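To close the section, here is one more complete example, presented without commentary so you can practise reading it yourself. The ligand is calcium ion.
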Amino acid sequence: MKRKIILDIDPGHDDAVALLIAAASPELELVGITTVAGNQTLEKTTLNARRVATVAGIKVPIYAGLARPLVRDQVIAPNIHGESGLDGPDLPAPEVPVEKEHAVDFIIRTLDESDGDITLVPTGPLTNIAAVFIRRPDLARRVKEIVLMGGAYGLGNVTPAAEFNIYADPEAAHVVFTAGAPITMVGLDLTHQATATPDVLERLRGLRTRVGDLVAELLTFFGSTYHKVYGMEAPPVHDPCTVAKLIDPDVFTTRPAYVAVDTKSDLNYGRTVCDFYGLTGHAPNAQVAMKLDRDRFWDIVLTALARYR
Ligand code: PIR
Ligand code: CA
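Output:
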């Protein structure tokens, strides 16, 4: 049985790779793409989703979502993803439309019409998903699973304590983590193991395809900003880790924890505080990603991308 997923993205270099592998994997049925403000403004992330879909010939409907966080002032990440949100490769003008229906309405309708078999895969701020549960708290029981990229039990990447997707909308993340849906949290602790080293870039170019070259160019730009900002030798390719888990559950291990989002403090605003030991007395609300099988991960990504001819 194909697993039905909705990808909620803010492309974003690594979001683009997540989209490309999701659309090419026979294990998954990509029922819709929804966009959110995050790495760049909603206008830019939506345009980027359409451009990537155009290059790759992806014919899945794209719905635009919310343009700002629920409460806090907007933060974007041009230092990492550039002014366009997807700097580096030359991308064509989009030839695929944006649907008229709002992303939040689309997600609600799809869950309503489903047998409880829809998995949500958010790889940007959780604004759209929070809006779904604010309007329809009952839908938390209809979601099969939420496999999200965000958070960290260790270090942050936008403040010492917070990861970007959670920091960009902590109140939304709070709503999602307390909604009652089963969650797999793929945080920086996991994604920092998914580095695009030079041998990976070689394999991508070795595909000798438009999409292989596109992903190599995306990750080369991403690597240059990661080197500038963090001094890292190879960039972590965060968002595809979520999709890889749905293609092959053995790609990483998880541990149950109670995850709370700090929405109140100054230094720790947007931190995902992970209780692995039951210290707070709360039952676990998430499976937290721990150890990546790195070879398996890149094999999954390369196998999926090789399907684009
Ligand atoms: C990556 C991102 C934002 C900021 C930095 N510094 C790095 C984006 C990625 O698209 C990913 O979804 C998540 N946010 C990682 O924090
Ligand atoms: Ca992202």
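Once you have examined the tokens, check your reading against these statements. Residues 3-305 form a domain with the Inosine-uridine Nucleoside N-ribohydrolase; Chain A fold (CATH 3.90.245.10). The longest strand covers residues 252-261.
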